[in-house]
Amino acid sequence: MMILIAGPYRGGTNDDPILIKKNLDKLESVALPLFRKGHIPIIGEWVALPLMHLAGSKEIGDSAWDEIQYPVAHRLLEKCDAVLRLEGASKGADNDVRIAQERGLKIYYSLDEIPNLLEK
Q1: Count of alpha carbons within 13 Å of 85, Cβ hemisphere only?
Q2: From CA 37, how far away is CA 6, in angstroms rounded?
Q3: Which of 1, 19, 60, 118 has the smallest C-beta neighbourhood within 10 Å, fewest atoms?
Q4: Strand, helix or coil at 53?
C-alpha cells in the first residue's frame, strides 16, 4: 500500500524552525518501518518543500506556501491506499484524515496496526 504519513508539521511550533524540523523528524521516523513492512511511505512535505522552494516561497504562509503545502497532500491522497495518523494536534493532518475517510481509505493510528506484507 502507499500510505500517507499525517501528523503535526507546523502545529504546536509557533513557526519555530527547530520545532518544525522536530515534527518532520517524527513524521519521517515511521517511514522506514513502513517500508520494511512492504509499503510505500509518503509524507506531503517530501513533495511540497522542494516545490515551495522552486515557487519562491520565502516564509510559512506566503502565497507560494499556501498554493502548494496543503494541496500536495490532497493530491497525494488521490493515489494513496491509506493514512497513518500520528499523534499530535494538526489541523492539516485532521483534514487529511477527513478527506481520506471521504474517499474510503483505511486510517491507521499506530504502526502496529499496519499489516506486514513481507512476513512469511
Answers
A1: 19
A2: 18
A3: 118
A4: helix
